[in-house]
Write a structure and sequence with these properties.
By secondary structure, the chain is α/β, with parallel strands linked by helices. It has helices at about 15-25, 35-55, 115-120, 145-155, 170-175, 185-200, 215-225, 245-260, 275; strands spanning about 70-85, 85-100, 105-110, 130-135, 140, 155-160, 235, 265-270, 280-285, 290. The chain is built from nine helices and ten strands. About 30% of the residues are buried.
Amino acid sequence: MSDSDVKEPEATTEDGDAKGDARDNESPAPKGDAPGEGAKADAAKADAAKDSAKSDAPPKSGPYRPTPGKPLIEMSNVTKTFHKGKEPLTVLDGLTLTIAEGAFEALMGPSGSGKSTLLNLIAGLDRPTSGTARVAGHNLEKMSDGELAKFRAQNIGFIFQAYNLLPVLTAVENVELPLLLTKVPSGERRKRAETALRVVGLSDRMGHYPRQLSGGQEQRVAIARAIVNDPTILVCDEPTGDLDRKSADDILALLTKLNQDFKKTILMVTHDPSAAERATTTRHLNKGRLD
């Protein structure tokens, strides 16, 4: 029923006669259109529209959910400048880079070319001086320190040249460490840590301490720790730098497995051409620019 179909009652000051006349002249409401039902229906429609808008809107926070065909990492005209005393030192100079979901990319270049700085920006450990850095659906240059910490915890796994294992903890306890910062229950934490160690081939070394492991095994524990949160991106800074050739090849084979079988996007800084050959794409940085 529209508003025009409703007659306004006539005003009166005499015994309510006009009110009675108005009631006599009113046509009966059609069935199902009792007074107020139209307004209720409009309110219900408005609530449904709000619910629909909420469901379509992207989540404000949380782990990244890959979208096929969309870039995962987009760096546009990124500059990073540090200051040594009063002298500015530009490490990245107008760098533009796009990396697709599921890529395995190697970054090579001489020392001081900006490789590790670029990794730090992608991982949310630092912000660009200028330009935009969009990673896993987040504009990192606009995020607070707390938001960046949450972004890293949910989306990034770190693998370094140094294994950074705590010597007083067993392999499974080291892998479990990142989960202590989450709300995952203790029993589930242990299950996830054990699963990660099985993925890297150390199911028989869960109770061993770092001193009881070889260098290659220690790096496998570090990789298990990096993947225990199921991150979208693995950031690797010289992951084979301290290993002999055989151990290095084993670690590179494991990274390839994580990329191909578990669909992890991997960015690896390396000086080793043999390591770079394992990647599907190799990029060269020189004086803060991509060649």
